[in-house]
């Protein structure tokens, strides 16, 4: 165990920024046999880490940036774990001035992928590899094994990859949940979409809870039992598991269900919002993710909600016991079908982003590294991996035969659940958006034909015909003749 600064280059990797995530990553590296240089803007935090956890492995504490860089073996590999935005830029500039050609800077924060693309280009011009790395799993994952999504050059992954793979979570088949995603900002882009799917997943689970409580009349404790049952089947996932734990928890101060003493105003850090914004830029429909973001936004507008509290609503009518049990089974079907749609939309966005920015992203590989460690880890991700591995050109998860059969089998219950929610005034924006997406994809014709006619009428925007090639415009005044527009 190293407990004092060293001028010798003994460390295989360094971590600067020792708040909880950075400290836990450093400890994870050390626990896996790597000598880890540690540094923080305030030296007290560096010393505190080594004092508390020095027995877990070999740490090389450094008081200054110069000492930190000098302690690293070449090519130097530095993980930056500081607040996104300007603080990250400041740290990058500080260390870039001390590095040499071939050294590697790794940004493990929740950076916007466009910032990562900018930083990667700037560092590449200085001969330094810059690797934007999405890290999912929270504080526990950072310590015990996260899912890791590194971007950057293939060359940088040659030296960095084995280190990251050693500390990453392992899937049931032993595969590390870490792979090279693609160039420049690809890693942070995929992490952004991961978080968007996470938003949608959480919203769908919340809607299932709301329906079971308001329509089936179940208590939080009984809903927890229901979720535990679901977690033994095809909905087996981390989020379903922790939902049961949250719902079963009793508040110590009041003796009430924990969920009843928490304000119903959800917060967000921005990655879900980024997912929707970028999807709009790419022209990719991620309606389930968007509704999840908007649901959080709506929950936070307390004044608006208070002003609307007295608006008319249907009279609540909890179902009889036998009907409630059957309804709960239908909710499980609706939740599963909507979940498939959320992942369908997310993987579509990843593919579109790869095409837009020139990244060759392996969708099966992405599904593989989400099987453990990350927040959206779920049993059915192995089937998603298999679907994309079997057909890399698969246009949509809904085009996979098995998923198509399952969602088809669920659709009647899915529709019935949404209808019952509408009848009783229980909002289901996630379920409804997922079903609308499904119906939109499978429809033989959509009303977009009328939309194109409207656009041509008021703006001469032209339209295409079903019976011949080319663009056309109708002269809507007078004889309304049609002209070819190109």
Describe the model.
By secondary structure, this protein is α/β, with parallel strands linked by helices. The protein is 54% helix and 8% strand. The strands form 2 sheets. The chain has a 7-stranded mixed β-sheet with strand order 3-2-1-4-5-6-7, sandwiched between helices. It has a 3-stranded antiparallel β-sheet with strand order 8-9-10. A hairpin with a 6-residue loop joins β8 (463-464) and β9. α9 runs antiparallel to α10 and α14 packs across α17 (401-424). The protein is globular. It starts with 12 loop residues before the first strand and ends with a strand. The model is unreliable at 1-6 (pLDDT under 50).
Provide the fold topology:
Layout: E1 13-16, H1 20-31, E2 36-39, H2 43-53, E3 59-62, H3 65-70, E4 77-80, H4 86-96, E5 104-107, H5 113-125, E6 129-136, H6 138-144, E7 147-150, H7 154-167, H8 186-214, H9 220-230, H10 238-248, H11 271-282, H12 287-300, H13 302-307, H14 321-357, H15 363-369, H16 381-390, H17 401-424, H18 429-442, H19 448-459, E8 463-464, E9 471-474, E10 482-484
């Amino acid at each position: 165990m190293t407990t004092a600064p060293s001028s010798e280059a003994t460390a295989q990797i360094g971590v600067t920024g020792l708040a909880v995530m950075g400290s836990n990553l450093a400890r994870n590296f050390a626990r896996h046999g790597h000598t880890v240089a540690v540094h923080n803007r305030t030296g007290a935090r560096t010393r505190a880490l080594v004092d508390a956890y020095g027995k877990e492995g070999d740490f090389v504490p450094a008081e200054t940036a110069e000492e930190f860089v000098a302690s690293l073996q070449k090519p130097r590999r530095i993980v930056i774990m500081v607040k996104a935005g300007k603080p990250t830029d400041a740290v990058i500039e500080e260390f870039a001035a001390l590095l040499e050609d071939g050294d590697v800077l790794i940004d493990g924060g929740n950076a916007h992928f466009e910032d990562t693309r900018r930083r990667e280009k700037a560092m590449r011009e200085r001969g330094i590899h810059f690797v934007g790395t999405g890290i999912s799993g929270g504080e526990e994952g950072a310590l015990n094994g996260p899912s890791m999504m590194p971007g950057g050059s293939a060359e940088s992954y040659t030296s960095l990859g084995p280190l990251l793979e050693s500390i990453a979570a392992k899937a049931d088949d032993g595969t590390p949940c870490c792979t090279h995603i693609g160039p420049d900002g690809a890693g942070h882009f995929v992490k952004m979409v991961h978080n968007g799917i996470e938003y949608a997943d959480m919203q769908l689970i919340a809607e299932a809870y709301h329906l079971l409580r308001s329509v089936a009349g179940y208590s939080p404790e009984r809903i927890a039992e229901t979720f535990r049952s679901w977690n033994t089947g095809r909905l087996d996932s981390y989020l379903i598991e922790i939902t049961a734990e949250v719902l079963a928890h009793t508040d110590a101060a009041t003796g009430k269900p924990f969920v009843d003493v928490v304000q119903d105003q959800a917060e967000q850090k921005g990655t879900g919002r980024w997912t929707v914004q970028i999807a709009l830029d790419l022209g990719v429909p991620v309606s389930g993710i968007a509704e999840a973001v908007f649901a959080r936004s709506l929950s936070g507008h307390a004044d608006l909600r208070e002003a609307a509290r007295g608006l008319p609503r249907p009279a609540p009518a909890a179902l009889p016991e036998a009907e409630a049990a059957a309804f709960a089974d239908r909710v499980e079907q609706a939740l599963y079908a909507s979940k498939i749609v959320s992942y369908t939309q997310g993987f579509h966005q990843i593919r579109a982003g790869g095409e837009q920015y020139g990244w060759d992203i392996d969708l099966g590989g992405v599904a593989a590294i989400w099987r453990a460690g990350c927040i959206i880890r779920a049993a059915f991700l192995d089937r998603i991996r298999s679907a994309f591995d079997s057909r890399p050109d698969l246009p949509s998860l809904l085009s996979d035969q098995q998923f198509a059969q399952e969602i088809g089998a669920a659709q009647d219950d899915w529709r019935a659940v949404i209808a019952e929610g509408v009848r009783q005034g229980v909002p289901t924006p996630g379920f409804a958006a997922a079903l609308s997406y499904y119906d939109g994809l499978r429809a033989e014709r959509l009303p977009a034909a009328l939309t194109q006619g409207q656009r041509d009428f008021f703006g001469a925007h032209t339209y295409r015909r079903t019976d011949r090639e080319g663009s056309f415009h109708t002269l809507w005044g007078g004889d309304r003749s049609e002209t070819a527009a190109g």
